[in-house]
Amino acid sequence: MNVLVQKYGGTSVGTPERILRVADRILAARRTGVAVVSVVSAMGHTTDELMEMARKVTPNPPRRELAMLLTTGEQISISLLCMAIQAKGARAVALTGLQSGIITDTNYADARIKRVRTQRLRQHLAKGEVVIVAGYQGVSNGTEITTLGRGGSDTTAAALAAALGARTCEIYTDVEGVYTADPRQVPNAARLDYIAYEEMLELAGSGAQVMHPRAVEIAMRFGFPLLVKPSYSDGAGTVITEGSKLESVAITGVTTDKDIGKIAIQKVPDRPGIAAKILSALARERIHVRLIIQSVNEGNVNDVTIVVKREFIERASAVLERMCRSLKASGVVCDPNMAEISIVGSGIASTSGVAARMFKALARKNINIDLISTSTIRIACVIDRRRVDDAVRAVHDEFKLGRLKRRAV
Amino acid sequence: MNVLVQKYGGTSVGTPERILRVADRILAARRTGVAVVSVVSAMGHTTDELMEMARKVTPNPPRRELAMLLTTGEQISISLLCMAIQAKGARAVALTGLQSGIITDTNYADARIKRVRTQRLRQHLAKGEVVIVAGYQGVSNGTEITTLGRGGSDTTAAALAAALGARTCEIYTDVEGVYTADPRQVPNAARLDYIAYEEMLELAGSGAQVMHPRAVEIAMRFGFPLLVKPSYSDGAGTVITEGSKLESVAITGVTTDKDIGKIAIQKVPDRPGIAAKILSALARERIHVRLIIQSVNEGNVNDVTIVVKREFIERASAVLERMCRSLKASGVVCDPNMAEISIVGSGIASTSGVAARMFKALARKNINIDLISTSTIRIACVIDRRRVDDAVRAVHDEFKLGRLKRRAV
């Protein structure tokens, strides 16, 4: 059985009219002879509206009931999409996370998929039915409803593609594909025909919203391509695939994250394991640290600076304040108004002078670099949030990304 | 374990503010030391809004996906109510129909409860948790979502009260209790302190909206009282209980149904089994017939008249039209603008002249009676819809129901 897994985002199914259009697209794929599994997000702003209702009831909604509440959003969209397909004369079945056999751990708010029991999915596909699956949700302990966290519907689609041995997984979205930069920031940003898994991971991890890194990780591990396509047109989109199949390009994109802050715990006497101690304390509070940097001052005391998403700033500051005394540090300083700009590309490590060119491009615009972090395929700079739009345009121009066309080899 | 089952209707949980008030009421009950199970309907107009979305996708939504869609309404309200109780510092758990062990047959749109697996409910109650259950929904074949049809949340509450051996089942609603007539039609209608199961069944079956007859049937069979109470005040409400515990009253109420029509198949040659033939044909199409009357004309031909709810008129007419030829009837005549007025009371059979008083009261207002049907505790007259408000006031006055106070003996 040749299985195609598709995912449709919330904008694509935002109204009954759009749902009918998505049904047409699914049926067009079905007519090519493949078995189709379509994963769907909640309609438009449904999730935000449900969250708003919860906050009117309590400022801190319990995780179990919040998962139960939010998953109604996808249950609504799969019901309607399945009705639309049946109304057009094809056979289809809508399945919740539980019915799809998506078994997760017991973390209600940010569950990991442990396995997919594909028996029921395969039965429906074997009968020639289109299978519509609720994204973002799973089940633990038999009947407990869990959610997969951010980008959950992408994760559902990739996990089903892996479990069903799909040849490809299509991610339909409200943009034309993956770009060299966010077109709202950089008007001459170019759509990439191809990008390597690793590069996409770094772009997604650095603020590009188009795909969630968990889905990319799954596709990379199981070796099937992800196809990011617009749901409103026949645009070719972007293929995310193995880097070895692509021509080498130094830089494929520049991306920014405007929602970060930095917190420094100052003048910590230097002892082994301090960074580990701080990281464990933050991990216990489920705070994700993007970056941790130790800088040695005179007198053998360190400043330890962490960079976190805005949502974690308050809790992270509280954790560091509590540790101040036991670490014999002098104090905690917090700057919530930072941004991160990153360049990503498989050629960064092998092409000399890439970092220098990036720093010079920023310097020419008088943009101060506060912190720098590098990996084999990414260089990230933390800067003042107010300069981030200038920064991304300067770096995009420096590497002439507006003219980039990545090809398969 | 002393268990109290409560049910809160859609108006009672219509906004986050009202949900917080319902939480207070539940906690007040909990403080008296009973174990509380609260069954909840969908918030306000949620069900109508979901139905409207479905109709924008297709005029005839498939039953399975419609059940999946509509049950999100109750899943939302139980999640929010459970959050509200936890926010007030008590332990609570929200359970969907599946999680509550409400096992039904496979009729997605109008399922019957086959049994309630109470193990999980009892475990939560034993831990001192308030259990919030989604009304109107059940599960068949392990994971298929079904709905219980009209009045489904009342049915859920009564079924749980029966399965858990609850001493009483409270039905919270947006009215003060059961009235001798609809107060919107009859301003001096009186609230009944008590009413017998059988009387309530007839009232509900004759158009009174306050309780669904299925819930009353369950309470009657298992012998626990139903308490219909306002959710917005501390009004005493109405106790629905065994007739033998109540003083005898000829008439307890007058009720109307404005949404009915009659269809006559004319001049059917008289043969045995014609009514049965017509009823079976209608039953196959899932059309509920309220009344069927055969009148013999001259020449040994019958007119067969059926009375149905408005929603069935079109389909019922089509069925009778199709049967016309095989029954050798002369034609089908349909009048969709009828109403039914009923009086209900355990004393009807034993009190002489009740029917005559009702007919005279209508005659004094020049209201024609089109069809009459009687049972031991009910007399129903089909009349012109335009006269129904006059009719109900005339009959209510005739029996001085505005002064009625039913007592327990």
Can you give a write-up of this model?
The structure is a homodimer of 409-residue chains. Chain A starts with a strand and ends in an 11-residue tail after the last helix. Chain A is built from 11 helices and 18 strands. In chain A, 34% of the residues lie in helices and 28% in strands. In chain A, helix 6 runs antiparallel to helix 7. In chain A, strand 17 (371-375) and strand 18 (378-384) form a beta hairpin. The model of chain A has no long low-confidence stretch (mean pLDDT 92). Chain A has a domain at 3-174: Carbamate kinase (3-Layer(aba) Sandwich). By secondary structure, chain A is α/β, with parallel strands linked by helices.
Helix content of chain A: 25-40%
Text of the CATH class of the domain at 3-174 in chain A: Alpha Beta
Oligomeric state, counting identical vs distinct chains: homodimer
Largest sheet of chain A: 8 strands, mixed
Distance between the termini of chain A: 29 Å
Q: Outline the low-pLDDT stretches of chain A.
A: none
Shape of chain A: globular
Strand order of the largest sheet of chain A: 3-6-2-1-9-11-12-10
Tally of individual helices of chain A: 11
**Backbone structural class of chain A:** alpha/beta
Second rung of CATH, namely the architecture of the domain at 3-174 in chain A: 3-Layer(aba) Sandwich
* CATH level 4 superfamily of the domain at 3-174 in chain A: Acetylglutamate kinase-like
Overall pLDDT metric of chain A: 92
Secondary-structure element string of chain A: EHEHHEEEHEEEHEEHHEEEHEEHEHEEH
**Largest interface here, residues on each chain?**
A-B, 38 and 38 residues
Query: Any idea what the radius of gyration of chain A is?
Result: 23 Å
What's the β-strand tally of chain A? Answer: 18
How much of the residues of chain A is beta strand, in percent?
A: 25-35%
